[in-house]
Amino acid sequence: MRKFSPALIAVVTLLLTLLPGKASAATLTEVTNFGTNPTNLRMHIYVPDTVPSRPAVLVAVHYCTGSGPAFHSGTEFARLADRYGFIVVYPSATRSGQCFDVSSPQALKRNGGSDPVGIMSMVRYTLQRYNGDAGRVYVTGSSSGAMMTNVLLGDYPDVFKAGAAFAGVPFGCFATTDGSGWNSTCAQGNLVKTPQQWGDLVRAAYPGYTGARPRMQIWHGTADSTLRYPNFTEQIKQWTNVSGLSQTPTSTDRPQSTWTRTRYGSQVEAISIQNGSHNILTAGMAQYAIDFFGLSRR
Question: Which of 67, 142, 143, 272 is catalytic?
Answer without folding.
Answer: 143
